[in-house]
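Job type: complex structure
Entries:
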Amino acid sequence: MSDGADRPPEPTTPVGEPSNDSGNALVVTGPFFQRMDWLSFGLTAVVVLVVYLRTLAPEVTLEYSGALSTSAKYAGVAQPPGYPVWTLYSWLFVTLVPFSNIAWRVALGSAVAAALACSWVALMVSRAGTLLLETTPAFTNRKPAEQQMIQVVCGFVAGMALGLSRTVWRMAVVAETWALTVLLFALMLCLLMRWTCRPERRRFLYGALFVFGLLLTGNQELFVMTPALLLVVLLSDQALGRDLSVVISLLVLADWAVSVLGLYYWLGSDMLRSAGLLVAFLLVGVAAVVAIVRTRRFGSEWRSVSLCGILFLLGLGFYLYLPFASMTNPPMNWGYARTQEGSFHLITRGQYERWHPTDELGRFIGQLWIVAKETGEGFGWPYFVLAALPFGLLRRTGGCARRWLLGSAAVLFVSGRLWSGY
Amino acid sequence: MVGLLNPSEDQIIDRVVIAPLFAAMYVILALCTGLGLMVVGSIIAKTRMQPPPDAMPRS
């Protein structure tokens, strides 16, 4: 088993040194994230956190705030699907912060998580922007100090745009689970970015899959991102992506067949009734088969594939916390998870309605409009124009930035727009 | 995910309920926005010019 540490490191392109024919960009080895990236990270974290602290809810708010605060206080079992990672995270804040009421402390946890998510975004923009623009003379011909200034400012602006968007801000100042979701998602993207630039260092991919497992303990609907993640792996490491995609596509196909025949049911079975999701998995499977034909090999990366599976299950394994927490009989003990039936009922969201993917095109278009409108109003329409610009540089930029940007676009696609019956 | 969640079109409350589900999408939008800003910034930001010789302070 090798994480590829014995292979030579891929050069990165930090800013700050004189260069060759492409201006001031110089290919050197060293830490992937540079000092300016971390400056952007720190600046964003501090400013966003100050804004959140000034606007933090002083008490229990509406919706699930009270139930979640109780769950965090006693490290209990929250509403389906149990939110084990969020509960433990918030319990730490309730325990370690010695002042104010419980709901405020839990909201503080939300604020910290959201601020960190924004700062990870700032970090990624600062670094990825440099990689993206390493072949653009308008950037590389600038003085190192100017490049650094652009890095820091753009990273900061991106972090603030996320942090001050209506939806994120609203959930960052109350006792809710979403802020941690955003943090874990941003962290997973950052680890993936780190890995795509140096695919031989697979520990970052393992880390990303572990975080993906953690993410699914609270937001099972993000399972739809799996094909996009496989695409990132395929683009960055063909051999590993090939083996991983074949295994997962076969598992998905088997699950779909078993559920169609009515032999077995689990939560993912309903999701796979969405033809879009099924087709995406099949496309990834086809790409993997093409990779097998091209490389004339299969299974050479079984150890890494196994490790990927183990790390993912390790993250997902936090669900095992729920029955143990339920045994302590906390005030918030949803679903009586100490029993096998209760655990299954809780984790599969048995109390709620099952997934019913859209199966009408007209309805799907209407839903897309709702989401687009909400996103435009919550995030800001003008940002959409800016967000489209990096894709214009895809053909000119290097492999690392291209792979990561394509992967991010795929994640954006599946996390927002895909999965109708069409 | 829109199709998977299958939100109602005519209930305004659904916009509030479903918005957090798309928070992950916001992260990528913010990333792309930052990168786009970097593209624009590197093109339109003025390079600081050296002051002309006669504008230099004389000792």
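Summary: DSSP finds 19 helices and no strands in chain A. The first helix of chain A runs from residue 35 to 54.
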